[in-house]
Amino acid sequence: MYENIQFIYTKEELKNKPRVFKINDKYYLKQDNERKLHTGHRLQKLLYMITKNPIIYPTVPSRKTNLVLFESEILEKMAKEGINVPKVVYKTENYYIMENTGKTFVEIIERANDKMKEDALVKKL
User: What is the chain's pLDDT, residue by residue, as a tens digit (125 residues)?
Assistant: First the structure.
């Protein structure tokens, strides 16, 4: 199913790799990093607890929560709700691997010309 891709990595193998990197052209590996919980994150969590608005869902969990599992579970929940997100194909406590879904949002925006950006904004309004 995964074309004999090696999904098992040791901490030593990942030590000098970036937080997110490609495994051939079909997958990305995203590993844990040191999180920095700022005042804005705490405010975001408080606002979410009050409003339950999914737009302001906390993006950085408390230090007790495993960040890799937190992020991968969010992707899995979103996929179950029918949202088009990368499929998580493998996860451990140190990293997870997700399918490459094509260009990132940032890549699309950076390559778009001003007319395309204006049209997209007007269409949303």
Answer: 455 556 678 778 888 888 888 888 889 999 887 767 778 888 888 988 899 887 787 777 777 788 889 889 988 988 888 888 899 999 998 899 999 887 766 777 777 777 766 676 666 55
DSSP assignment of 12-48: HHHTTS-SEEEETTTEEEEE-------HHHHHHHHHH
Contacts of 52 (CB under 8 A, 6+ apart): none
Total count of residues recorded for the chain: 125
Q: Where are the domains of the chain?
A: 11-124
Strand partners, 95: 31
